[in-house]
C-alpha cells in the first residue's frame, strides 16, 4: 500500500510514494507537550507501520521540516507560538502555498480564546480542534487513529486518481509505437512509471498454441529492463521458465510477494505476458490499475497489429507496382527491395524521424515508376543512347511525378517527389528542375544514393556489375557533385550494413563482390 506523499516539483500537486513508517509532526513551543505526546505515541503501530515522531517548536521550523519531509501524514499543531496566530498561518501555508491537501492537521491550543473553535473550523482547512486540557492519553490515541484513517482513505483516492491519470497519459504514447519492439519497450516504461517501480521486468510474446503446448511454442523476449536487459528467453533461469509455464497453463495473471506476471490473450489468440520483479507487494489498488492498464495495452496492441498489417500490405503493393516498371526495363529482380532497404538505412543514419523513415521505405521503390511511359525500344536499348533518346529517358522523372502527384495519400505524395527529384544532382546540374543542394528533398537525395549504389553493384541490361572498389571510388569522386556529401560519408561508414542488405536480397545472378 502506498502511504506517503511526494510533492511534484513542477506542479506542487501531491502524489503518493512508498513508505515504511508513518510520520507525525509535533509543532508546539512547550517542551512538556512534546514529552507527553511522545510518551503516549512512541510505540504506537498503525496498520503494521511504526509511527515516526518529528518535533519542532515554531511555525517557521515547521515549514523547513515540511519541505524536507514531504511525506508527513499528520500534524499536531499549536496555535500560539512565536505569534498569536502562528499555527493558523502555518495551516494557510500548507494548504495554499504548498498545495498539500492530504496531510491531516489537528489543531491543539491551550488558549482557546485566541482561536475560537467555531471561527477556526470554518475559516481554516483543519481536520480537528482540541483544547490541550481535554487531550488525555486515550483521547490522543483516538484522535491519532481517526486522523490516520482519514489520511489513508484520502491517499487511496489520490492513488486511484493518479494511477488512472498515468494510464490515460500512457495510452497515446503506446498507441504511437510503430514496431513491436518499440511497443514492448513503451509498455514497460509506462508500467514502471505508473507503479513507480524501479524493477527488473521483461515483456514476452507467445504464439497462441504455446499457451497450451508450451514445449512446442516459441517464446520471444521483445523488450527487457534491469537484469534481463540483454537476455533472450533461453538464457532466463529455469525458475522463471517454470513460473511462465505455470501462468500459461493457468491462463491468468499471478501476483506474489516479490514478482507478478500479467497474462492476457488477444482476439487472434496471441498470448502476451509481462513479468516484473520487485520487493514491494502490490496492493489491491495496484492490481485494479494493472487490470485497466492491460485492457489499454491489449487495445493498443490490436491497433498496432492492424497498422503493421496495413503497412505490410502497402509496401507489397508499392513493390509490385515498382517491379512492373523495373520488369519493363529488364532491371534486376530485387532492385526495388534493395533500394528500399538502402534508403531506410540511410534515413535512419541521417537521423530522420521514425515516421519519415517508414514513409521513405515505402516510397523509394517507386522512384522509376515513370519508366512505364518510356518506349521499350529506348528503355531496353543495349547500346549507348543517342542524345535524343537520352532526353526521352529523362522524361520518366516528370512522368512518374504526374502519375502520383494527384494522390491524397502521404506515401504516394512522397513517392511523387522522389520520382521527380531523384535524378537531381547536388551541384545543380541534374534533371528535371536543376535543383541544388538542400533544395532537393532529402527523400530524393537519399534515394539517389541508394539507387546508384545498387545500379553500379548489380548487372544491368546495358552493363556488368562493378567491383566494390570501383563503386566506392565512383561515390568518392561524385561526393558533393552528384551526391549529398553527408550521405556518401554515411554510406562509407556503414558499408557493412549495406552489404548485408545486398546479400540478403541478392539476385540469382551476379552482383558486385567485396
Automatic annotation (TrEMBL):
Residues 310-507 form the HD-GYP domain. Keywords: Hydrolase, Phosphoprotein. InterPro entries: CheY-like_superfamily (IPR011006), Cyclic_di-GMP/3'3'-cGAMP_PDE (IPR052020), DUF3369 (IPR021800), HD/PDEase_dom (IPR003607), HD_domain (IPR006674), HD_GYP_dom (IPR037522), Sig_transdc_resp-reg_receiver (IPR001789). One of its GO terms (molecular function) is hydrolase activity. GO terms for biological process: phosphorelay signal transduction system. Residues 332-456 form the HD domain. It comes from the Bacteria. Pfam families: DUF3369 (PF11849), HD_5 (PF13487), Response_reg (PF00072). Residues 23-147 form the Response regulatory domain. PROSITE patterns: HD (PS51831), HD_GYP (PS51832), RESPONSE_REGULATORY (PS50110). The modification 4-aspartylphosphate is found at residue 78. This is Response regulator receiver modulated metal dependent phosphohydrolase.
Amino acid at each position: 500500500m502506498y502511504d506517503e506523499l511526494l510533492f511534484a516539483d513542477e506542479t506542487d500537486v501531491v502524489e503518493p510514494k512508498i513508505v515504511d513508517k508513518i510520520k507525525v509532526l509535533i509543532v508546539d513551543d512547550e517542551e512538556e507537550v512534546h514529552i507527553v505526546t511522545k510518551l503516549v505515541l512512541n510505540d504506537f503501530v498503525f496498520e503494521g507501520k511504526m509511527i515516526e515522531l518529528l518535533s519542532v517548536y515554531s511555525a517557521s521550523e515547521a515549514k523547513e521540516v515540511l519541505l524536507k519531509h514531504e511525506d508527513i501524514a499528520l500534524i499536531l499543531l499549536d496555535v500560539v507560538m512565536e505569534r498569536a496566530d502562528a499555527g493558523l498561518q502555518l495551516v494557510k501555508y500548507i494548504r495554499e502555498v504548498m498545495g498539500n491537501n492530504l496531510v491531516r492537521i489537528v489543531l491543539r491550543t491551550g488558549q482557546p480564546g485566541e482561536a475560537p473553535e467555531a471561527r477556526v473550523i470554518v475559516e481554516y482547512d483543519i481536520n480537528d480542534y482540541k483544547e490541550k486540557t481535554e487531550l488525555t492519553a486515550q483521547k490522543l490515541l483516538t484522535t491519532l487513529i481517526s486522523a490516520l484513517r482519514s489520511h489513508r482513505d484520502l491517499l487511496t483516492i489520490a492513488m486511484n486518481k493518479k494511477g488512472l491519470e498515468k494510464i490515460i497519459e500512457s495510452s497515446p504514447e503506446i498507441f504511437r509505437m510503430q514496431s513491436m519492439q518499440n511497443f514492448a519497450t513503451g509498455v514497460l516504461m509506462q508500467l514502471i512509471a505508473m507503479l513507480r517501480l524501479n524493477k527488473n521486468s521483461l515483456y514476452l510474446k507467445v504464439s497462441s498454441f504455446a499457451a497450451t503446448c508450451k514445449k512446442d511454442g516459441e517464446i520471444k523476449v521483445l523488450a527487457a529492463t534491469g537484469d534481463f536487459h540483454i537476455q533472450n528467453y533461453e538464457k532466463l533461469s529455469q525458475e522463471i521458465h517454470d513460473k511462465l509455464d505455470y501462468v500459461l497453463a493457468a491462463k491468468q495473471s499471478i501476483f506474489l510477494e516479490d514478482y507478478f506476471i500479467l497474462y492476457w490473450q488477444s482476439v487472434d489468440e496471441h498470448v502476451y505476458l509481462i513479468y516484473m520483479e520487485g520487493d514491494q507487494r502490490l496492493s489491491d489498488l495496484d492490481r485494479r490499475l494493472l487490470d485497466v492498464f492491460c485492457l489499454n495495452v491489449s487495445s493498443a496492441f490490436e491497433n498496432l497489429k492492424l497498422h503493421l498489417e496495413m503497412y505490410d500490405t502497402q509496401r507489397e503493393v508499392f513493390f509490385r507496382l515498382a517491379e512492373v516498371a523495373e520488369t519493363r526495363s529488364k532491371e534486376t529482380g530485387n532492385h526495388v527491395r534493395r533500394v528500399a532497404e538502402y534508403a531506410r538505412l540511410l534515413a535512419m543514419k541521417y537521423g530522420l524521424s521514425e515516421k519519415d523513415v517508414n514513409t521513405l521505405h515505402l516510397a523509394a521503390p517507386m522512384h522509376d515508376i515513370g519508366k512505364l511511359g518510356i518506349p521499350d525500344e529506348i528503355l531496353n536499348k543495349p547500346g549507348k543512347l543517342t542524345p535524343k533518346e537520352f532526353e526521352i529517358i529523362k522524361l520518366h522523372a516528370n512522368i512518374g511525378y504526374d502519375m502520383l502527384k494527384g494522390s491524397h495519400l502521404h506515401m504516394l505524395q512522397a513517392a511523387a517527389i522522389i520520382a521527380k527529384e531523384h535524378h537531381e544532382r547536388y551541384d545543380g546540374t541534374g534533371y528535371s528542375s536543376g535543383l541544388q543542394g538542400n533544395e532537393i528533398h532529402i527523400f530524393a537525395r537519399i534515394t539517389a544514393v541508394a539507387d546508384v549504389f545498387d545500379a553500379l553493384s548489380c548487372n544491368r541490361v546495358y552493363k556488368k556489375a562493378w567491383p566494390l572498389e570501383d563503386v566506392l571510388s565512383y561515390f568518392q569522386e561524385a561526393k558533393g557533385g552528384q551526391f549529398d556529401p553527408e550521405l556518401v560519408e554515411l554510406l562509407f561508414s556503414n558499408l557493412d550494413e549495406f552489404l548485408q542488405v545486398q546479400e540478403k536480397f541478392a539476385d540469382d545472378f551476379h552482383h558486385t563482390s567485396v
